[in-house]
Amino acid sequence: MSQVYRIISMIMILFLISCEDQTDKNKAMIMNEITTDNVADGAYYFNLDSGEKDNTSWHLIFQNIDVPFGGQQYKMPSFGLSASSMLAIDSSSDFESIETSPSPNAFAPEGGRMIYGGSHAALTYDMAAHKVGVSNDTYIIYDTVTHKVFKVHFDEYSGGIVIFRYAELTSS
Question: In the chain, what are the domain boundaries?
Fold first, then answer.
């Protein structure tokens, strides 16, 4: 009989150990997919923290900017960041595989890097095909107000509308 109690006790201990609260370990990253308004209708401001369009407290702006070419000005779709956001760019990792924020020294002001014509422009224009394309880069954005970090990937541009994904990253 004492062996039965011992076995039952061991099973109960195993059960209790296996039911340990592991919410932090199992917390799934929530991916958000956003479809912008048509850039021809005006600037589109987006707040990554609230997940909503917001022209008063925003991180990303999608707008047409004037680009000189051949002595004329052309409207080109472009993304930019608010002054309270810092940027790091990951060109080598797959968007889905990025789970933690890079070190704080990886971030710098956007400085024109992601706007049209920038060194890591989110949107580009192929003059031969007359088509706007999206970058394969992952843009990692640090909000200096909330100290939250988000990864953003632009998936598609079609007829003035962009589809992008983003998720909040955990600290490294």
Answer: 23-169
Q: How many CB atoms lie within 10 A of CB 70?
A: 5
**SS3 of residue 7 by DSSP:** helix
CA-angle at 136, arms to 115 and 139, nearest 5°: 55
Burial class (CB in 10 A: 0-12, 13-18, 19+), 111: exposed
CA angle 158, 159, 163 (to 5 degrees): 40
Give 25's pLDDT tier (boundaries 50, 70, 90).
very low
Whole-structure pTM value: 0.83
Contact between 150 and 32 under an 8 Å Cβ cutoff? The reply is no
Q: Which of 15-19, 36-40, 55-59 has the lowest mean pLDDT?
A: 15-19
pLDDT tens across 136-152, in order?
999 999 999 999 999 99
